[in-house]
Amino acid sequence: METDCNPMELSSMSGFEENAELNGFEGTDMKDMRLEAEAVVNDVLFAVNNMFVSKTLRCADDVAYINVETREGNRYCLELTEAGLRVRPFSF
């Protein structure tokens, strides 16, 4: 099996968490979930009847809501977080 780096390289990175500010991660913000939600909509829109970022449920840096209508006519509200998507109570 091929790997991107050998075990010797990994041992030199053992202090990664403690020195995050030295590795270019100081002050890194979470993703803007509204932008992520728009990307999800653009990726999946071809496969559903309708899909859009909710205009009634408030999006934040850590959560966004997407309304979906399937080709079968079922409607769902999806919650998008860093953990992924999950079905929420209907919102449309």
Order of helices and strands: HHEEEE
Q: Approximately how much beta-strand content do the residues carry?
A: 15-25%
Question: How is the CATH topology named?
Answer: copper amine oxidase-like fold
How far do the termini sit from each other?
48 Å
Quick one: how many beta strands? 4
Secondary-structure content class: alpha+beta
- The low-pLDDT segments are 1-28
The CATH top-level class label? Alpha Beta
Q: Look at the structure and give the mean pLDDT.
A: 75
- How much is the radius of gyration in Å? 19 Å
- Helix share, percent: 10-25%
Number of domains: 1
Protein name: GSK3B interacting protein
GO molecular function: kinase regulator activity; protein kinase A binding
Family: Belongs to the GSKIP family.
Domain GSKIP: 33-87
Question: What does this entry look like structurally?
Answer:
The protein is α+β, with helices and mostly antiparallel strands and 92 residues long. The protein has a single domain (7-88), classed as Hypothetical protein (hspc210) (copper amine oxidase-like fold, 2-Layer Sandwich). The protein has helices at residues 7-11, 33-44, and strands at residues 50-53, 64-69, 75-81, 84-88. A 4-stranded antiparallel β-sheet has the order 1-2-3-4, with helices on one face. The longest helix has 12 residues, at 33-44. The N and C termini lie far apart (48 Å). The relative contact order is 0.14. Residues 1-28 have low confidence and may be disordered. This is GSK3B interacting protein. It comes from Rousettus aegyptiacus. GO terms for molecular function: kinase regulator activity; protein kinase A binding. Belongs to the GSKIP family. One of its GO terms (cellular component) is cytoplasm.
